[in-house]
Amino acid sequence: MTAAATDAPRRLTVVLGITGGIAAYKAVGVARAFVVAGHDVHIVATEGALRFVGRPTLEAISRNPVHTDLYEGVAEVRHVALGQRADLIVIAPATAHTIASLAAGLAGDLLGTTVLASAAPLVIAPAMHTEMWEHPATVANIATLRARGVTIVGPDSGRLTGTDVGPGRMSEPEAIAAAALAVVGPHDLVGRRILISAGGTREPLDPVRYLGNRSSGRQGVALAEAALARGATVTLVAAHLEVPAPAGAEVVEVGTAAELDAAMRAASVEADTIIMAAAVADFRPVVIAEGKIKKDAVGESLELRLERTPDVLAGLAAARRPGQRIVGFAAETEADDERRRQIGAEKARRKGVDLLVVNPVGWSEGFGSTTNSVMILDGAGSVVARAEGDKASVAHRILDLLV
Ligand code: CTP
User: Fold this and answer.
1) What is the pLDDT of residues 125-178, one digit of tens each?
2) What is the CATH number of the domain that holds 41?
3) Which of 62, 103, 204, 392 is the most buried (most CB within 10 A)?
4) Alpha-carbon gap, residue 334 to 357, rounded angstroms
5) 229 with 332, same domain?
6) Which residues have C-beta within 8 Å of that of residue 352, sequence separation ≥ 6?
7) Rounded distance, CA 259 to CA 184, Å?
8) Which residues line ligand 1 (CB under 6 A)?
9) Could you tell me the distance, in angstroms and rounded to a whole number, from the CA of residue 199 to the centre of ligand 1?
């Protein structure tokens, strides 16, 4: 890839506004996501927010004092100082009341003055009941904020307080942090075409059963989100994702290893970079039963004959165009770090990749988790980087190496 080189990720001053809704407890996760990604987080919480989540929790997670009162620290002109220092302001959750105040430009509390005193990008994650979200007043306020360049993340649809279900649920903390960082992030992949596989393939045994694996697709989706945020054009070949594919990616849904192989080959023609994050079945049943396999017809034990599936990654690497970059993944249950490196090094050479991302997996580790811990090997098997944290920051680290 020949995109412009980037410096090490910049440490941002992030002001996190937390307002008084039940989703305030999830703001702890938002603060944590920014801290894990290496940023300096300053929380401005309204009095209402502190009824839902305790100041000590917020201070422990953000590692900074929590600010609430407009009349505290007057000598240091805190009501404008925070806003002036901020590289990014994120308000999560943003209640209907906060959204109305922001739209009107009110400066009645510390959060209002901070926002007005700042030239930093503003990102808000609304959270409220569906009726409030759909009320014409809120709809108009959101339109005003959007027109002013504010980034709105969510809300998602789902379970709200009590038994209500509908749009209004605050987006997940990692998604909020990733979307916010994308607003200020480097746009170093503009013009690049990245093809990513994600999820886990399923090989049918009969019309109702399959052989599958526990991949949720989270790491592949995080890579797609990160690449999109950095300006790339992304094709996502998606096998049974447990998380939504990012808006903005061209998504090709596949089921089996053979379908994934065909989709990847077709899309690889246009790609500058190919990332194989999907967990692909290595074996599939030789025969797929036409109808449901009945236990009475089979007896006490059932033997399955399996055959190898194509090695998609090795095929893509063998057919690569000059300049095309190929990244593989290796999920290994080997607990010893050095043994894992050796297995990874052998795999990197065998598959002919430029980078191999090796991560430990186990009964309770790796698959389905929102975090990851990886070592990244080059094609010769040397460790070029390690990354640990939420899957979004691991994704950015992988993209940094490609850039
Ligand atoms: N992979 C692939 N096609 C397969 C199996 C794996 O493209 N049929 C890709 C995966 O997407 C991953 C990499 O190869 O990027 C490594 O997958 P892994 O299962 O760890 O490697 P295998 O070669 O299957 O080795 P083993 O399972 O024996 O460890």
Assistant:
1) 999 999 999 999 999 999 999 999 999 998 988 777 777 788 899 999 988 998
2) 3.40.50.1950
3) 392
4) 15
5) yes
6) 314, 317, 318, 320, 326, 379
7) 37
8) 257, 276, 278, 280, 282, 309, 311-313, 328-331, 347
9) 13
387 in a domain, yes or no?
A: yes
- Does residue 188 fall inside a structural domain? no
Residue whose Cα lies nearest atom 3 of ligand 1: it is 311
- 212 and 116 both lie in a single domain: no
Of the CA atoms within 13 Å of residue 376, those in its CB half-sphere come to 20
pLDDT per residue over 76-100, tens digit each?
777 788 999 999 999 999 999 999 9
Cis peptide before 244 (omega within 30 of 0): no
Q: Is the peptide bond before 186 cis (omega within 30 degrees of 0)?
A: no
- Alpha carbons 209 and 203: distance in angstroms, whole number: 8
CB atoms within 10 A of CB 293: 15
Greatest Cα-to-Cα distance within the chain, rounded to the nearest angstrom: 84
* Residue in this structure with the two tokens 């993209």, named with its chain if needed: 399
Task: Give the residue whose CA is nearest to atom 9 of ligand 1.
Answer: 313
- Residues with a known catalytic role: 213
Given this model, what pLDDT does residue 134 score? 96
According to DSSP, residue 308 is labeled E
Tokens of 382: 């040397």
Place of tokens 């045994």: 205
H/E segment holding residue 250? strand 250-254
SS3 348: helix
| Domain membership of residue 149 as a residue range | 3-183
Among 312, 332, 334, 341, which is best to mutate for testing ligand 1, by the most ligand atoms less than 8 A from CB? 312
Q: 319-348 burial, b if ≥16 CB within 10 A, otherwise e?
A: ebeeebbbbbbbbbebeeeeebbebbbebb
Atom of ligand 1 nearest to the CA of 350: 23
User: Residue 244's CB: how many other CB atoms inside 10 A?
Assistant: 12
> Do 193 and 233 contact (CB within 8 A), yes or no?
yes
- Dump pLDDT digits (tens) for 318-372: 999 999 999 999 999 999 999 999 999 999 999 999 999 999 998 888 787 878 8
pLDDT score of 1 more than 50? no
What does pTM read for this prediction?
0.69
